[in-house]
Design goal:
Helices cover 38% and strands 17% of the residues. The chain is built from 12 helices and 9 strands. The protein has helices spanning 7-17, 33-43, 60-68, 82-88, 107-115, 131-140, 154-161, 171-179, 219-231, 237-241, 259-268, 282-291; strands at residues 29-30, 50-54, 71-75, 95-98, 120-125, 145-153, 180-188, 193-194, 201-208. Helix 3 links the parallel strand 2 and strand 3. Helix 9 packs across helix 12. The structure holds S-adenosylmethionine. S-adenosylmethionine is lined by residues 25-30, 54-57, 60-61, 75-78, 81, 101-103, 125, 127, 130.
């Protein structure tokens, strides 16, 4: 078995197939075995686990996943990588390679077929250009999953983990923290990839809650309030919500609120009328959404 997690092994495969990196697909391949071992450890992969890997590249992390998990479904958009994956993973009988776009794949159906609907783990060195749609898609589609352990841009990992009152706090922090417990597991330098990305990276584990930590009467309304609050983050919350065109009610229909109404709700919550969205906790957004 040739492991790919070393610069020479990766370059050999790339040269053999005349593979050209495609920037549009966010292709930065891991070449550090130590980082890969830490990712497997962080994801707590065992022989009981079904794993979906997003973007296997040439199969570097897939090899590690296959050796620890029950089965791995590796979803790769770039058709030029499929013959490479078929060779580098040929010894693993528990790996299935799918040439699909993860944003279009019916993951719920895959989990139903491969795992009888029991929760799977998601592990990936993500293509950074679609980090947020991938994460939100996984959470919002209610795919049965227990955790998501992913390499992302360091700043994005920070945004997912922080609380109110920091510059990184925003709609992504609140959305992630509504669905999961985020923990940054390790930081990764650009030198661990070929080609080197222009940004620092971090591995973050999102452990999905069985029940959200706050009760909201309508998730649609709740998330629309969060979006409106951070759309123009320098505005006060009252100004951002007044007559906002992005607010929707529980049925998804457009909803308009007056300034007086928002201010009276803020009073009711014991909050200052000049408060900004970035100062509110998840609990306060839930409360606001339930009474607005
Ligand atoms: N897992 C490999 C590694 O760690 O070396 C490659 C990681 S690379 C950062 C991201 C991978 O995601 C690339 O192989 C890229 O082609 C793939 N990819 C990009 N967009 C995708 C999409 N929409 N669906 C599935 N795979 C995608």
């Amino acid at each position: 078995m040739t492991y790919l997690a070393a610069p020479a092994a990766t370059l050999e495969v790339i040269n053999k197939y005349g593979f050209h990196f495609q920037k549009k697909y966010g292709q930065n391949f891991l070449i550090d075995a130590n980082i890969l071992e830490k990712i497997i450890e962080a994801a707590e992969i065992t022989r009981e686990d079904g794993v979906i890997e997003i973007g296997p590249g040439i199969g570097t992390m897939t090899q590690y996943l296959a050796e620890h998990a029950k089965w791995v479904a590796a979803v790769e958009i770039d058709k030029n990588l499929i013959p490479i994956l078929n060779e580098t993973l040929s010894e693993y009988k528990n790996v299935m390679v799918l040439n699909e776009d993860i944003l279009k794949l019916d993951i719920g159906r895959l989990v139903q077929e491969k795992n009888s609907g029991r929760p799977v783990k998601i592990v990936a060195n993500l293509p950074y250009y679609i980090t947020t749609p991938i994460i939100m898609g996984l959470f919002e589609s209610q795919v049965p999953l227990s955790s998501i352990t992913i390499m992302v841009q360091k700043e994005v990992a920070d945004r997912m983990q922080v609380g109110p009152g920091t510059k990184d706090y925003g709609a992504l922090s609140l959305a992630v923290q509504y669905y999961a417990k985020p923990e940054i597991m390790l930081k990764v330098s650009p030198s661990c990839f070929i080609p080197r990305p222009n940004v620092g990276s971090a591995v973050i584990r999102l452990t999905k809650f069985t029940e959200p930590p706050v009760q909201v009467e309508s998730e649609k309304k709740f998330f629309s309030i969060i979006r409106a609050a951070f759309n123009q983050r320098r505005k006060t919350l009252a100004n951002a919500l007044t007559n906002s065109i992005s607010l929707v009610d529980e049925k998804g229909n457009g909803m308009k609120v007056t300034r007086e109404h928002v201010c009276s709700v803020l009073d009711q919550m014991g909050l200052n009328q000049t408060i900004r969205g970035e100062a509110l906790t998840l609990e306060q957004f839930a409360h606001l959404s339930n009474i607005l």
